[in-house]
Amino acid sequence: MADASRPNRLRLVRAGIDTYQQPVVFMHRDCAVCRSEGFTALTRVRIRNGGGELVATLNVGTGDWPPTDVAALSEAAWNALRPEHDGYATITHAEPPPSAAALRAKVFGQRLDEADFLQLMRDTVANRLSDIELAAFVTACAGTRLDHAETIALTRAMVAVGERLDWGGGAVLDKHCVGGLPGNRTTPIVVAIVAAAGHRIPKTSSRAITSPAGTADTMEVMAPVALGLDAMRRVVEREGGCVVWGGTVRLSPADDVLIRVERPLDFDSDGQLVASVLSKKAAAGATHVLVDVPVGPTAKVRSAEAAEALRARLAVTAAALGIALEVRMTDGRQPVGHGIGPALEARDVLAVLRNEPGAPADLRERALHLAGALLEIAPGAAPGQGRAQAERLLAGGAALRKFLRICEAQGGFREPAQAPHVAPLPCAHHGVVRAVDNRRLARIAKLAGAPASATAGVDFRLRVGDPVERGQPLLHVHAHTPGELAYALEYAQAHADIVLIGETA
Question: Where is the signal peptide (predicted)?
């Protein structure tokens, strides 16, 4: 039974249900609180337990679960509230969020100022906005619905509601890729080169949400990445650089919430992309930033015109934040490296750092290009010498030694493992590779189990213009189980144009 002295109180229990980042509470439709408060499914409710408070979305049970005398919290809700064992909570209707008026104004096409965005981001990180409201905000800002001034205001607001690192003066370098290109795992190599050159480069990276691997997933194959702020600072002070997961350091936490909503919607929005990238760079204390923009028909940025528009917005916003910015457009027509998936990409990273004869030449070249460009925007750099400096540090082994020291500082280096099940996808006829579909190639890797299975993914070594023979492997699928292997191969065989083969000239 509910606490008789307080009719709107229920005992809290842990539901053991993963609702990702969204706090959810489960209550029976016949419980006293639902009946007296008039709660229905998706009602936003305020839960108070001792000194803790949480706003959550209600899901209503109609059968035997949950019992009528409890409120069952999802994992996200439980971890956010941290209630006392067998504690009771007062559950009431949540008040409308303070940013409700600003959200409505944006939905109806009005411009918002910095105060509006700040309140929206405060409500976002405090979980006062439901996923439906967040989806409305993301939609209202999609396309070209954020002008440059709004993009700057949103970026500043995202920085303001999170932690911000202060490195005590001096240049702090950073690098980011807007994504959309399988296997483009240049970041660990760039960090190693730049740190070996004596610069600070505290790199926070994301895990994959819709891709086969994020930089943090790939780095985690080789070293721990879930470091807190203090541990991250110790690594950077010791080695000059790091590659850690941004989810543990709360730099621009509003961005993490918005990404959760944006990705399923698959909206292209330069304003939100720029705010996402530069809010995290500013929060990490970066003073000089290089942004890699791969451009290609199946990349995230698909045309030169779209790339130039993105460059302009990045430049304006970076200038407003006091960040020195360099944007490099790169070839996004096909994957980079051999591997697609955490362990396979880690193998490529190590092959380049170790200067192995079979290391993927395109990954090495792209990493040197980006590292050289980043070195050249550092204060005091000699113009035109960045690439040569990067090549010396890589070829001479200094970059490898620095990378291994960074791994040790983060908790210890380990070699990437190999998937237990590997099978080829044979070519149906001879010809020449005319095009590669980046998105569907990445999907094969995901169906094989990446990134949840770190060793799963795709080994793809062909490039546009390469000749192929009938029966020759187009790619190899790596999987943890036979079922995942068969599932990925079935998809690949059903979509033969993932690797488009044309007749020879």
Answer: none
Indicate which residue of 3, 69, 131, 268 is catalytic: 268
In angstroms, rounded to a whole number, what is the distance separating the alpha carbons of residues 376 and 386?
5
Q: Is the peptide bond before 360 cis (omega within 30 degrees of 0)?
A: no
- From 251-265, 345-359, 365-379, 415-429, the region with the lowest mean pLDDT: 251-265
Taking residues 374-402, what's their average pLDDT? 96
Eight-class DSSP state of 248: G
Identify whether 268 is a catalytic site residue: yes
Nearest C-alpha neighbor of 399 from the set 198, 174, 193, 173: 193
What burial letters (b/e) apply to 226-235, b meaning 16+ CB within 10 Å?
A: ebeeebbbeb
**pLDDT for the residue numbered 2:** 47
What domains are there in the chain, each with its CATH number? Answer: 9-93 (2.40.40.20), 173-249+272-410 (3.40.1030.10), 421-502 (3.90.1170.30)
d(CA 161, CA 258): 13
Q: How far from 396 is each of 242, 338, 369, CA to CA, in Å?
A: 21, 23, 17
Radius of gyration of the chain (CA): 25
